[in-house]
Structures are given as structure tokens and as C-alpha cells.
Amino acid sequence: MMHILTDATFDELVIRSGKLAVVDFSAEWCGPCRLVSPIIHDLADEYDGRIVTGEVNVDENPQITMKYKVRNIPTVLFIKNGEVVDKQVGTASKSTYRNLVEKYI
After folding, report:
1. pLDDT tens-place values along the chain, 105 residues long
2. Is residue 30 among the annotated active site residues?
3. Active site residue 103
4. pLDDT of amino acid 37
5. Taking the CB of residue 94, how many other CB atoms lie within 10 A of it?
6. pTM
């Protein structure tokens, strides 16, 4: 299941989940973000129940964007036990994201 994450819901859905979270920071106007989003949606389906997946619109959620020092988009953070364990900035192949999920799941 893919979550739409906001400043208000981030802690509850990501930090307190107890699972690996794959969080896609993006914006509607960002062309490369449109390439990454379907990959993260596919991973959400593939790993349903095993990981938490979500999208953060950086324009609408400045607090969480600043907290994680996201300066370039797309940025996908891999968060486990409240800590960023890895990140991918820019576009990458589905296998790159899958390998990172498998590394931390």
C-alpha cells in the first residue's frame, strides 16, 4: 500500500511502523520524479505488508523535507527504526531500489 505522507502523518506511518520505510520525496512538476514514482508503487505492491511505502510532496510538506535535508528530487529515503539507513538521489533502475529494500528488510 502506498501512503501519501504529510508533515502531520510522517511519524505515525513511517517512524512508528516498525518496518523498513521507502519514502519517495518528489513534486508534481518534477519530470524525473515521474519516472521513479511507478517504481516505488510497484515495490509497494511487491512487498505489501513487509515494508511501508509512501510519497512526500516537497512543496506541500516543508517540515519533513527540511528535517531530512532533502535538497534534490527525486530522493528516496530508506528508513528503519527511525533512522535513515540509505538513500537514492535521482533516478535509478527498479533493481537498484529492490536491492536496497532486500538489503534492509
Report:
1. 999 999 999 999 999 999 999 999 999 999 999 999 999 999 999 999 999 999 999 999 999 999 999 999 999 999 999 999 999 999 999 999 999 999 999
2. yes
3. no
4. 97
5. 14
6. 0.96
The residue annotated as part of the active site, out of 5, 23, 33, 43, is 33
Nearest to residue 54, comparing CAs of 95, 1, 16, 105?
Answer: 1
Q: CB 97: neighbour CB atoms within 10 A?
A: 20
Q: Please compute, for residue 100, the number of CA atoms within 13 A of its CA located in the half-sphere on the CB side.
A: 23
Domain ranges of the chain: 2-104
Catalytic residue among 14, 30, 39, 56: 30
Query: Considering the domain 2-104 in this protein, what is its CATH number?
Result: 3.40.30.10
C-alpha cell at 103: 538489503
H helices then E strands: how many in the chain? 4, 5
**Dihedral angle of Cα 92, 95, 97, 100, to the nearest 10 degrees:** -130
Q: How many residues does the chain have?
A: 105
What DSSP state is assigned to residue 47? Answer: T
